[in-house]
Amino acid sequence: MQDRYNEIIEIIRKANYEYYTLDNPTLTDQEYDRYMQELLKIEKDHPELMRDDSPSVRVGGKIIDSFNKVNHEIPMLSLSNVFNEADIVAFDERVRKEFPNPIYVCELKIDGLSVSLKYEKGKLVRAATRGDGVTGEDITHNAITVKTIPLTLNENIDIEVRGEIYMSKKSFNKLNEFRKKTGQSLFANPRNAAAGSIRQLDSSIAAERDLDCIIYHLPNPLDYNIEYHFDSLEYMKNLGLNVNIKANRRVNGLHELLDFINEWTEKRDTLPYEIDGIVIKLDSIRGQQKLGYTAKYPKWATAYKFPAAKVLTKLKEIKLTVGRTGQVTPNAILEPVRLMGSVISKATLHNEDYIKLKDIREGDIVSIIKAGDVIPRVENVEVSRRVGTEVPFVMSKTCPICGSTLKKTDSAYYCVNDKCDKVKIESLIHYVSRDAMNIDGFGDAIVEDFYNMGYLKNIPDFYKLENYKEELMELEGFGAKSINGLIDSINESKNVSLERLLFALGIRHVGAKTGKILAKHFKSLDNLMKASNEELVNIKDIGKTIADSVYKYFRDEENISIINELKEIGINTNYLGKEEIQNENITGKTFVLTGSLEKLTRDEASLIIENNGGKVSSSVSKKTDVVVVGANAGSKLTKAKELGITIWTEQEFIDLVGDLDEK
Q1: What contacts 98, CB < 8 A, 6 or more positions away?
Q2: Which long-range contacts (CB under 8 A, 24 or more apart) does 560-566 make?
Q3: What is the four-CA torsion angle of 252, 258, 259, 262, rounded to 10 degrees?
Q4: Among 25, 236, 477, 562, fewest CB within 10 Å belongs to which?
């Protein structure tokens, strides 16, 4: 019986691979159903034979209490966006400066939920969401119900792959028809439906939703001796993963890239799933490493977003909101209208100057677009639709929350009252946010409720909530489990690295990237607090505006008091990131590589230089420190000799760098 059971599992697994991955089924539906029924009967009669990777687990049924956190060893970064041909040209130019004559891979950007799949010896052991890119949530119990996620690969291999879980248009329409018949609220679009399904605690719900998954990324291709992204897609497909090979394309140069975009802009509606753009990736993995990353995005890839759709609706009111920095922003309150699958009732108006430039008035019929298919904004006024009752906008001179006088800086207005309730609430919301201290369980409404109840007045109060556990558990909607979860998450935040704390404190002009620059430079909060304005200004990428803001923040007695209290509570104030490799022969120097290298590729040598804190240039000048020469070196060697620049052979370069295996 064991042999027959294993045989049926292999038959069904092979059939799934042929159907979903190869799009070339060899079994009829009737044959497939017959094998599945035989499998279920064996498992019912002989439960001791049941395997974890049995196709029967696709029906779900596992229920969990909560989602466990998962740390991504290689961060799951999002992509930067481009919106038109000029943006694409600019992206291509930036790539070419570092990596001439690039080959790109173009892929359809499926509108779903990012997922990481981890296999050990060919068996699926974990699925996780992107989360904040560093920490996600374990959704394995739901992922195994997705038919296009193989439970077993074609090789007994350890590997992590990444992709997108999504809901097809057909499944989405079927789901909403069912919800309508049963009196449930409808999902706005397939993406929301997929995200809502994959985050169910009961996996049988996810199983009913008929989700799919397409794999598009191998985080560490060089570990598998793969030098090009497109080859990694082929490799993952051969493992049995569902890769969108037929729609993906290698393109040579800007002309072919734009042709691909134009082609799919016209064909997007013919697809069985929603796409919101085209992903563009540099094909060379070595080239990807050379270009590197910003704090949030890879520099070697971007996402072209399709032109935003546009709808008309009535602007009922212009309402002012107050943010964490005290900035007062006008927002449009709209008659609800459906735009690209979502119901829109609010849109940004940016600032007073924007409203005046567009002559936007309360009562106007306005056109709304989704910038980048995401953020709704008022684009234009339908002046011909005016009836004479529209009211011109006049910017308030006082804060809508506390009544304090507003101060205008550049094009924005600010509430100057440090005690303004809304400013404090927004600052507290920012502190717990994902990119800051990442304290789970604190939605905006909970923070505001706790503030109004007196439990939260400043940042250190988060760490005192444990003293009020009994009182908090008596509040409507809270119980021991939810409060204990909040407390655990709060305590976990004590151990985050300094760059997150700097961002969380809400120092004006200090975003996530600037926070990391400061943390890496000063290593500790104490060192940063003692820094002079001059020292701050001299840090690369820290200009005068940021320096002035940071210096001023750490000279404010109230801020110092909060920081001292956080230290007493036990908040980590040190940078926990890895130190960059330093090599006195490389660090801070500019190199030029010329001629044919024998032991290293040009990309490998460049990567070694950059990883050791050096810079690689394509031309020899007075600013060049070292020229590394290989066989048949030409004019660059001649110029280096003329300028008296240090010249190394390839072997000298290797000897001075040290043990390459450690790089």
Answers
A1: 287, 290, 291
A2: 560/529, 562/458, 562/459, 562/460, 562/505, 563/505, 563/525, 563/529, 565/460, 566/459, 566/460, 566/463, 566/501
A3: 160
A4: 477
The pairing of strands 81-82 and 301-305 is parallel
Q: Which of 520, 540, 512 is nearest to 615 (CA)?
A: 540
Q: How many whole angstroms separate alpha carbon 132 and alpha carbon 436? A: 10
**Could you write out the DSSP letters of every residue in 468-492?**
GHHHHHTSTT--HHHHHHHHHHHHH
Count of helix runs (H) and strand runs (E) in the chain: 24, 24
14, 62, 109, 615: which is the annotated catalytic residue? 109
What would the pLDDT profile of 108-141 be if each residue is shown by its tens digit? 999 899 999 999 999 999 999 998 888 899 999 9
477 pLDDT exceeds 50? yes
Residue range 429-448: mean pLDDT, rounded = 89
Provide the 3-class DSSP secondary structure of residue 294: coil
Task: Give the whole-angstrom CA distance, residue 445 versus residue 506.
Answer: 19
Q: What is the DSSP letter of 63?
A: B
pLDDT at position 340, please?
62
The Cα 248–Cα 251 span in angstroms is 10
Report the amino acid identity of residue 312. L
Alpha helices, DSSP H, located in 275-363: 285-291, 352-358
Does the pLDDT of residue 235 top 80, yes or no? yes
What is the C-alpha to C-alpha distance for residues 515 and 535, in angstroms, rounded to an integer? 16
Q: Which residues pair with 162 in a beta bridge?
A: 116, 217
Measured distance CA(413)–CA(426) in Å, rounded: 16
430 Cβ neighbours under 8 A, 6+ residues apart: 324, 436, 504, 506
pTM of the predicted protein model: 0.54
Residue 286, class by beta-carbon neighbours within 10 Å (0-12 exposed, 13-18 middle, 19+ buried)? middle
Q: By three-state DSSP, how is residue 245 classified?
A: coil
Q: In this predicted model, what pLDDT tens digit does every residue of 245-277 receive, in sequence order?
A: 999 999 998 889 999 999 998 898 899 999 989
pLDDT at position 63 is 73
Residue 559 predicted with pLDDT over 70: yes
Per the annotation, the verdict on 109 as an active-site residue is: yes
Helix, strand, coil percent values for the chain (each to nearest 5): 40, 25, 35
With contact defined as beta carbons under 8 Å apart, do 621 and 592 qualify? no
More confident residue, 26 or 572: 572
